[in-house]
From TrEMBL, chain A:
Residues that span the membrane, as ranges: 102-120
Any one Gene Ontology cellular component term annotated for this protein: mitochondrial inner membrane
Lineage of source species: Eukaryota, Metazoa, Chordata, Craniata, Vertebrata
Record protein name field: Cytochrome c oxidase subunit 4
The protein's annotated pathway: Energy metabolism; oxidative phosphorylation
Native source organism of the sequence: Sparus aurata (Gilthead sea bream)
Gene3D superfamilies per UniProt: Cytochrome c oxidase subunit IV
Automatic annotation (TrEMBL), chain B:
Gene3D superfamilies for the chain: Mitochondrial cytochrome c oxidase subunit VIc/VIIs (4.10.93.10)
Gene transcribed to yield this protein: COX6c1
Pathway: Energy metabolism; oxidative phosphorylation
Higher taxonomy: Eukaryota, Metazoa, Chordata, Craniata, Vertebrata
Organism, as annotated: Sparus aurata (Gilthead sea bream)
UniProt GO cellular component terms: mitochondrial inner membrane; respiratory chain complex IV
Protein name, per record: Cytochrome c oxidase subunit 6C
C-alpha cells in the first residue's frame, strides 16, 4: 500500500507498475481490464487515459516541446498532440453509421417469419371455432340486435330502415 | 483560430418561449375542432332523434319482436 503511494509520484501508469505483495504468496497479476481504459464517448469528453500510451521518439520530443510556449507549435503539431491524447474527434465519433438499415431489415424479416408461424398455428394448433360463428347464428344475432334497437341514434340501429326492413342507403 | 463563444445558457428558456405558445395554441385548436366537428353534431343528432320519438310505439315494436321476458308478444 505504501509502495503504491510512493510510486504514484513517478508515472501516469504508476498503479500498473506498483507491486502488490500478498502476504508472502507473491505478486498479484494486474489484469488489463482492471486498469483505466480509453473510451470515445460523447457524454465523457475526457477519458481516463491518453490514447497513445507508448510514445515514439518524435512524439516524445513533441511532448517536450509542449512543455514550452504553445504559440510556437505549428497547426500540424497541435493536431499530432491531439491525436496522441484522443483516438477519434467528436465529429468522427458521432458520425452516423448505416446500422439502422440492418436493424430495420432484421425487424421486417422476423415479423415476416412470425407471419409464417401464425399461419402454421392456425392450421395445426387451434381447434374449431365455436358454433356461435355459424352464418345462421350470426344472422339471428343481427336480427336480435336490431329488435333491441341497439344504438338507435348514431350507431348500429340508426343505419337500419325499420319501415322497409333494409339497411338505409 | 478564434471561434465564436458558443451558447452557454438560456437554452431551455429559448426552447420554451418558442414551443409553448405553439403547443397551447395547437391544443386549443384541437379542442375547438373536436367541439364543432364531433360534440355539436352529436347533440343535434340526439335532439333530432328524440323530437320524433314515440316511446310507446317503439316499445310495442320491441315487444312484438319478442326480446322482453316480462311482457311476451301479444299472441292472438
Amino acid at each position: 500500500m505504501l509502495a503504491t503511494r510512493a510510486l504514484r509520484l513517478i508515472g501516469k501508469r504508476a498503479i500498473s507498475t506498483s507491486v502488490c505483495v500478498r502476504g508472502g504468496h507473491g505478486v498479484a497479476k494486474v489484469e488489463d481490464y482492471t486498469l483505466p481504459a480509453y473510451f470515445d464517448k460523447r457524454e465523457e469528453p475526457l477519458p481516463d487515459i491518453c490514447y497513445v500510451q507508448t510514445l515514439s521518439p518524435e512524439q516524445k520530443s513533441l511532448k517536450e516541446k509542449e512543455m514550452g510556449s504553445w504559440a510556437s507549435l505549428s497547426n500540424d503539431e497541435k493536431i499530432a498532440l491531439y491525436r496522441i491524447s484522443f483516438k477519434e474527434s467528436f465529429a468522427e465519433m458521432n458520425h452516423p453509421t448505416s446500422e439502422w438499415k440492418s436493424v430495420v431489415a432484421g425487424m421486417f424479416f422476423l415479423i415476416g417469419f412470425t407471419g409464417f408461424v401464425v399461419l402454421w398455428q392456425r392450421k395445426y394448433v387451434y381447434g374449431a371455432v365455436p358454433h356461435t360463428f355459424d352464418p345462421e347464428y350470426k344472422a339471428k344475432e343481427l336480427q336480435r340486435m336490431l329488435d333491441m334497437r341497439i344504438n338507435p341514434v348514431e350507431g348500429f340501429s340508426a343505419n337500419w330502415d325499420y319501415e322497409n326492413k333494409q339497411w338505409k342507403k | 483560430m478564434s471561434l465564436q463563444k458558443p451558447l452557454m445558457r438560456g437554452m431551455l428558456g429559448k426552447r420554451l418561449r418558442f414551443h409553448l405558445p405553439i403547443a397551447f395554441s395547437l391544443s386549443l385548436l384541437a379542442a375547438i375542432a373536436f367541439k364543432y366537428a364531433v360534440t355539436e353534431p352529436r347533440k343535434q343528432a340526439y335532439a333530432d332523434f328524440y323530437k320524433q320519438y314515440d316511446a310507446t310505439k317503439e316499445f310495442n315494436a320491441m315487444r312484438e319482436a319478442g326480446i322482453f321476458e316480462s311482457v311476451r308478444p301479444s299472441e292472438e
